Every structure is written in C-alpha cells, then in structure tokens.
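Here we describe the complex-level prediction in full. Unlike the single-chain runs in Section 2.1, the two entities below were treated as one system.
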Amino acid sequence: EPEVTQTPSHQVTQMGQEVILRCVPISNHLYFYWYRQILGQKVEFLVSFYNNEISEKSEIFDDQFSVERPDGSNFTLKIRSTKLEDSAMYFCASMRLGTSGTDTQYFGPGTRLTVL
Amino acid sequence: KQEVTQIPAALSVPEGENLVLNCSFTDSAIYNLQWFRQDPGKGLTSLLLIQSSQREQTSGRLNASLDKSSGRSTLYIAASQPGDSATYLCAGMNSGYSTLTFGKGTMLLVSP
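The structure predicted for the assembly as a whole is:
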C-alpha cells in the first residue's frame, strides 16, 4: 500500500541554523500539508500546498518557514533560522483530489526536530 | 474557528472491554471528521473518516459516529485488546481540501 515517507526521522540542529525536512507524498495525491506536534501538545496545522502554491497557512507559518515541491515527487519544509521553540515532530500529509469529502489525509511517520 | 476537544484524556481498561472515546467540536459546519491512532513517538494512522452527510462508519471492531447538531463524534472500540493501546486523535475538516483541526487525544491503555 502506498505511503507517505519522510526524511530524516530525527534531525538535531543548533539554534539559528537552517533545516530542510523532506517528504515524499503518495504519488497520485495533489494536496500536501505540513503539521507539527510539540511534545505533549496538539497536532497543529502549518501550511497546505496545491498546484505549486500555498493554498493556506497558519499563524505559525511565518517568514522563517517556506515550502517547495522541487520535482515531481518531493515536498520540502525549510526553516531558515531555527529557534528553540521549533523543536517538535513535523508531519507531512497528502490527500488525493476527490469529491464529496471522501478523501483522507495520509500522514507520514514524522521528523523529530531538536533545536539545541 | 474550529475547536476540537477530546474526553477523557486517558483511559485504562481490561482486555475484552467495549469502550467509547469522545470528541466534541465547536463548528457544526464540519465537512468531515477523521479518527487517527498514534503510537508513542510515531506518525498518525488514519482509522476512519466520516463525511458530514454520514452518521457512522465501521471498520472491523471500530465504529465511529458523527452528530453535527450536537457537535459530537464517538469512537467505539469493541472487545478491546492490548494491541489497541495507543493515543486516539480526532480531527475535523471544515471544507473540501482544507486543513485538519486536531483534538489533544485520548491515551488508551488496555491491560491483559
């Protein structure tokens, strides 16, 4: 069964450094998402992406964040200058373009980002 | 803005018991609702999706219901097993290709 994959599984970085989190969505899906989950807290939406542009973003997704679909398979989240509070599990999700609310968002296993 | 709440935060039951997990949401204009399972340190596994036009969905020992008028969804797990131990999250979507708003989850422990 197709699945969303994410790399790396764990990233440790120093505060102020740039990180790129990578995702490979399910191949016939057209909607892509990034969410994050700070330890012990709710899963929070960051950004959605469709047709090579951002379709929606949350207040968390400020100028330090960017997303890109550099080729036909990868979907990346870049954090330009990491802060301690960016430490979290980051989840990528994808969804097929469907109808009538039938579509499920499928989540990857996550990347645990630790900012020191 | 949609808010999702899950009660209880944690639940411990003996193996074989039937149980119900609760999810409430504030905006009744919900498009669909998904239930997920999350094992410690792992990703989210989709269990069931209920469209706004449906009242329930079933998959194996799981049954999820949706009542838009009362702003509630329940996940019923029949004949619980130790392997069901995990955190269960519900999440609502407010339009067709929109984002999911998550509850904080119910941590379930099923003891042998």
